[in-house]
Amino acid sequence: xxxxxxxxxxxxxxxxxxxxxxxxxxxxxxxxxxxxxxxxxxxxxxxxxxxxxxxxxxxxxxxxxxxxxxxxxxxxxxxxxxxxxxxxxxxxxxxxxxxxxxxxxxxxxxxxxxxxxxxxxxxxxxxxxxxx
Amino acid sequence: xxxxxxxxxxxxxxxxxxxxxxxxxxxxxxxxxxxxxxxxxxxxxxxxxxxxxxxxxxxxxxxxxxxxxxxxxxxxxxxxxxxxxxxxxxxxxxxxxxxxxxxxxxxxxxxxxxxxxxxxxxxxxxxxxxxxxxxxxxxxxxxxxxxxxxxxxxxxxxxxxxxxxxxxxxxxxxxxxxxxxxxxxxxxxxxxxxxxxxxxxxxxxxxxxxxxxxxxxxxxxxxxxxxxxxxxxxxxxxxxxxxxxxxxxxxxxxxxxxxxxxxxxxxxxxxxxxxxxxxxxxxxxxxxxxxxxxxxxxxxxxxxxxxxxxxxxxxxxxxxxxxxxxxxxxxxxxxxxxxxxxxxxxxxxxxxxxxxxxxx
Lengths: 132, 360
Known about the structure:
heterodimer; A: 132 residues; 4-stranded parallel β-sheet; B: 5-stranded parallel β-sheet; 12 strands
């Protein structure tokens, strides 16, 4: 069993609260630190990033791609446009999806913040490979 | 039965307009104008299929007028009427006015009538073809979205199930087989519902409407019972006036199943008692249904989108919709020639009001 070496808080954004639950449990079990709040609504996630103080600010966001109304890419666009203070540097993003569409893969490459693309179900080894 | 084709006839001789009107008005919707200007005004207000114009008019010639019409209303079928057999006029009429027929003045009624009839038939055929193409286009777009969404929507619950199994494998102490199985069961039920909705979607698209006598109290009580399983604690009351309605039972079921399951599913957190109220009234000409709940309601900004394909909002794990339900409801109601209205807000909940024809 893999043990986490990445220790900054991880924030979860996914329209499926079942998946949020599964991911939170998995990550915590592996020893990662997960932000207490996770978001089924990406807009609320962005609000949180703007308002929270630097100690709560995540180092990484696990972001679902297919969400209604504001999808993962829409979230990334707004995330990049946030005016954040220096003690809250833009977090890295791992994209999550249950179906890897080639179009989505190509699109993800145009976002420097994105440092990985993981297919559900979330695999801890694969996650570690992307972030540790 | 009156032909659905409408005709505009333009001639500066009033007598011609009157006799044309008298001759054709029984069969077609006929508009007349004594000048090109007046004709253009009519065209901007009413839908016209066939435009017939006299060539010799004081300010604008028939060819000039038909050229304008061809550019602005290309879907019209145009016919020039003239007493002159000036070749230049005919060539311009064909090339610039893109006319379908050319009629010699003075006309005789059988020839004129035959020409109009032929043009009307061709025009109608073209119209139907365009409409069919539009329908095909919509179907194609829907199919494309379906493929994209289905690849996600069908895989996504399966991946959640795998995730739950993984959770149990790694940490059986905190995630016992019992709790994990319960969640897997719920996920599978949702997926099953999604698949049923997809089947309903396609059946509704393809099956012709077919009317039967339906004993409404039995059907409604059964469907309410089924839907209550989604939220067994909910309080529900059903009132029905009348018993027999003649409608398409398949589409009536689609409408009821989806409205009821939404009413039970989208309850508001922190409300003591979730309430669903179903009212059905059979009238001589219509079946009027109201499904009301005191649930989470629909934000004003979403009210216009709820009937769109794959529209959904993000929410809790048991509640997220497939984005198909209300779309199918709307399509089914449209097929029956009925109408649906919704009034909703997050404070009070939602009321769907449906009226579909009763063919009794």
